[in-house]
Specification:
There is one protein chain. The chain is of the alpha/beta class. It has helices at 11-22, 61-69, 103-113, 117-139, 153-162, 168-173, 179-186, 205-212, 223-235, 277-282, 293-297, 330-338, 383-401, 418-425, 470-486, and strands at residues 3-7, 26-30, 42-44, 50-52, 81-83, 88-91, 96-99, 216-218, 239-241, 246-252, 255-261, 264-267, 270-273, 304-312, 322-325, 349-352, 367-375, 410-416, 457-459. The protein is 34% helix and 19% strand. The strands form five sheets. It has a seven-stranded mixed β-sheet with strand order 7-6-15-16-17-14-18. A five-stranded parallel β-sheet has the order 9-2-1-13-19, with helices on one face. The longest helix is centred in the N-terminal third of the chain and has 23 residues, at 117-139.
Length: 487
């Protein structure tokens, strides 16, 4: 039996471990932290709060369900999945818009906001559904070694409908004129790590995967998905090694011969790296790396972010499970991330309050708050500037909810920013979401999932195909396991 090492236990690593073990490999997963999940870790405080450290939007539930079904399980075998209503609330300067769970209600909301927009939403979603069905089954599942992979009768026939060469902003503007509706429709692609004007219109599939299929929450927190995937991988025979830092990838005769883990050399027949792609390459001698430092400097990375995990000593009224504070200009904030690379003067931010849905993540009568503000990678993030933006975010939450002096009611506080992403995940520049899905960083134009100079080293995760986000990472793990089997 071939012995395989997987570096990292984020979603792509968990997925790769499960599929590779199912294919008959002896799989060992090495994780530098003391628990699985990577950026999706969870932690508990002495005060009784339970915080998901990373992902909080459970979109495209069929991707997760497909994963479990590949191993004769269902998501419900592991956790209870709740459909949120409203899915989220978006706060503008003069009003707030709650996105309902029911599609017909969503259509009525659009029509009320802009005459004729209800029927246009139908047309938009019909096209988005087509992109979702073709894109998620025939496009994002390719290993992207060559453009020839995409020369199939189905994809060729669908090429115009997929809108691969149109940018997302232009595409949305064909359907809607109202600025708030356009912002609402552009919001989902922000998860892909770039401005809507630089994202292919293909990714309107995100609107279908979110708004049409719904926004969900696994009771107990997003970490329940991590634990479930780990159980599936272990059920196939995968073995997990925690507090195990991979320090070097050792090569002999153009093959990975072994890994140095916590100072000890361990031999393997092949390696799948779900760790940060750039960091993984630094574990190799320079002659074996796929890409130079100059290559990485020229890539467009998805943002980093400032996160605050807060425990609040009272119930906060008028706050939904997911709330987006979009009172300020989206493009102005985006320019601070990709243009001037500085802290925004008028930031947008997101609040997750899972205690509105789940009484297990906060003590009774208290709230669990997760605040996230997107930022440029590589910027200074000292404690003083983190605190400055915390106070601004809290003031805007106060304006929405009517709560006074919210900072005085915070009984637990932890910040997480650029330096933390670098130290915890070796994330290039402190990025939070990987490599952006821009027009010139799609499919074959992404970093390759196979090392060009070493026959048995593979890469998976959000810096290679298909891209950033939880569902793409799960798909990435499946793709790389298939490539391992082929090779």
């Amino acid at each position: 039996m071939k012995k395989i090492a997987i570096i990292g236990s984020g979603f792509s690593g968990l997925s790769a471990a499960a599929y590779a073990a199912k294919d008959g490999f002896e799989v060992h997963v090495f994780e530098k932290h003391n628990q699985p999940g990577g950026r999706a870790r969870q932690y508990c405080t002495e005060e009784g709060f339970v915080f998901d450290m990373g992902p909080s939007w459970y979109w495209m539930p069929n991707v997760m369900e497909d994963f479990f079904m590949d191993f004769n399980f269902k998501a419900s075998d592991f956790f209870e999945l709740i459909s949120l209503n409203p899915q989220f609330e978006m706060i503008f300067s003069d009003e707030k818009i709650a996105v309902p769970e029911n599609y017909q209600e969503l259509k009525m909301l659009f029509e009320k906001t802009e005459k004729g927009a209800g029927n246009k939403l139908d047309k938009f979603m019909s096209a988005a559904k087509f992109k979702y069905e073709v894109g998620m089954k025939d496009f994002v599942t390719k290993p992207s070694h060559s453009w020839l992979e995409f020369v199939s009768p189905k994809i060729a026939k669908s090429a115009l409908k997929l809108d691969l060469l149109t940018n997302f902003r232009t595409y949305v503007a064909k359907y809607f004129k109202n600025e708030k509706l356009k912002t609402l429709m552009e919001f989902p692609v922000i998860f892909l790590g770039a401005s809507p004007k630089n994202i292919p219109a293909l990714y309107s599939l995100m609107n279908y995967g979110g708004y049409a299929l719904g926004t969900h929450y696994p009771m107990g927190g997003f970490y329940q998905l991590v634990l479930a995937m780990k159980k599936v991988a272990e059920n196939q025979g995968a073995v997990f090694h925690f507090d195990s830092n991979v320090e070097k990838i050792n090569v002999r005769n153009e093959k990975v011969h072994s890994l140095t883990v916590n100072g000890k050399e361990l031999q393997f027949d092949a390696v799948i790296a779900s760790s940060d792609y750039h960091h993984t390459e630094t574990l190799l001698e320079e002659e074996y790396r796929n890409y130079t430092e100059d290559y990485w400097r020229k890539r467009t990375f998805a943002p980093s972010c400032l996160i605050y995990y807060l425990g609040v000593n009272e119930i906060i009224p008028n706050l939904k499970h997911h709330t987006l504070f979009f009172e300020n200009d989206l493009d102005e904030h985006i320019d601070c991330i990709y243009g001037e690379k500085r802290w925004p003067e008028k930031p947008l931010f997101y609040v997750c309050c899972p205690s509105k849905t789940d009484d297990k993540v906060a003590p009774k009568g208290k709230e669990n708050l997760f605040l996230l503000m997107p930022l440029a990678i590589g910027i200074n993030d000292d404690e003083a500037i983190r605190e400055k933006y915390l106070l601004e975010m809290l003031q805007r939450i106060e304006s929405l909810t009517g709560v006074k002096n919210l900072i005085s009611k915070v009984i637990y506080k932890r910040s997480y920013c650029v330096r933390d992403f670098i130290s915890d995940y070796n994330a290039y520049g402190g990025n939070a979401y990987g490599l952006a899905n821009t027009l010139n960083q799609t499919a074959v134009l992404k970093p390759k999932l196979k090392n060009k100079k070493i026959k048995n080293l593979f890469y998976t995760g959000q810096l290679t195909v298909p891209g950033p986000g939880v569902p793409p990472s799960i798909i990435s793990g499946k793709i790389v396991a298939k490539e391992l089997l082929k090779n």
